[in-house]
Specification:
By secondary structure, the protein is α/β, with parallel strands linked by helices. The chain has a single domain, classed as Ribokinase (UDP-N-acetylmuramoyl-L-alanine:D-glutamate ligase, 3-Layer(aba) Sandwich). It contains 10 helices and 14 strands. Helix 7 links the parallel strand 10 and strand 11. Helix 1 packs across helix 8. Keywords: Kinase, Transferase.
């Protein structure tokens, strides 16, 4: 019997208020005049992963807790307007919110409202089990209630992915996610030794694939066969915003994985999707579609220019650049 859904996305719904600032860090001043303005829209990590997967043609269902409030209405409309199936569970503290300060170069600083979460927040087991039973894969967002779903998803036999975002490699909150997923995404932003952290995840947890996104340095993929460097892909339009680039990379990578592509091709899909996301303003909610992804990949792999397929690094020293923290510009998770 075939599954009803290719991917069940858990958690990560919320609303962002986007503020464009003249520079980051923002120097203290009594006031700033902001253009093109300040806008509140639905879309946090789980929303954008679900959007990216759905735009690429994967049958996607999103499950999360949201409030009975105007912010929740924006989240509901986000899914309804894009045809993404969404199951909501009441969140007593209200829909999650954040403020994103976005600089002229597309970098962002996110301020998360931590008052919305409560110790008792849970996704009901029966709902998780029911949706897991008709899904092939689960992508688990790094939100508190989702940690309790990991055993249920494994029990259902699903493969699992997660995104640790800007984990520092030490915070114990992230460990259940890092060690409980088959595919782990993480940003190198806060990692002092990214390769060491990646190898620890591979050695200690369930993961067979660990992906570290590194901004302008591209990304790195670690498996039991070694380390792979994924070069950046130059966007076809100007880079204006890094919001959602990591979520788009994850969606592109998972699309390749779930459609049976090679690891190199999965990584290339992720790089193309992430680059596209950097051309979309934070106030918009757009993702590369299936036709656009394949067209861009064909253009890249059909030319002699570097940056097409991933550069494989084996055990021979010097076959790839050192895995280091990224510069301050470029896509972020």
């Amino acid at each position: 019997m075939s599954s009803q859904y290719d991917v069940l996305v858990l958690g990560g719904s919320g609303v962002d208020t986007i503020v464009y600032v003249p520079e980051l860090p923002l120097p203290y001043a009594d006031s700033y005049m902001i253009r093109p303005g300040i806008e509140t829209r639905a879309g946090q990590t789980g929303d954008f992963v679900a959007l990216g997967l759905s735009a690429l043609g994967l049958r996607t269902h999103h499950l999360d807790m949201i409030g009975d409030d105007p912010s929740g209405d924006l989240v509901r409309a986000f899914h309804r307007d894009r045809g993404i199936d969404f199951t909501e569970v009441p969140l007593p503290g209200g829909t999650k919110r954040a403020v994103n300060l976005v600089g002229p170069d597309g970098r962002r600083l996110s301020l998360y409202d931590d008052s919305r979460s409560r110790e008792s927040d849970r996704l009901p087991e029966e709902v998780v089990r029911s949706l897991a039973s008709v899904s092939r894969h689960a992508h688990v967002s790094l939100t508190y209630p989702c940690a309790f779903t990991l055993p249920l998803l494994r029990e259902a036999g699903l493969t699992i992915s997660t995104d640790l975002h800007d984990w520092d490699g030490e915070n114990p909150y992230h460990e259940p996610f890092a060690l409980g997923a088959d595919i782990v995404f993480v940003s190198t932003t806060a990692l002092s030794d990214p390769e060491r952290t990646m190898r620890l995840i591979l050695e200690r947890g369930r993961a067979g694939i660990v992906v570290a996104t590194a901004g302008a340095e591209g990304a790195y993929v670690l498996t039991g066969d070694g380390l792979v460097h994924v070069p950046t892909v130059a966007p076809r339009a100007p880079v204006i915003d890094s919001n959602g680039a990591g979520d788009a990379f994850a969606a592109g990578f998972l699309f390749g994985r779930l459609t049976g592509e090679s690891l190199d091709r999965c990584a290339l899909y992720g790089a193309v999707a992430g680059a596209y996301a950097c051309t979309v303003p934070a106030t918009g909610s757009d993702a590369i579609d299936h036709a656009g992804l394949l067209e861009e990949v064909a253009a890249l792999t059909g030319s002699a220019a570097p940056g097409g397929e991933a550069e494989r690094a084996g055990s021979v020293a010097g076959r790839t650049r050192p895995l280091a923290r990224p510069p301050v510009t470029g896509p972020r998770t």
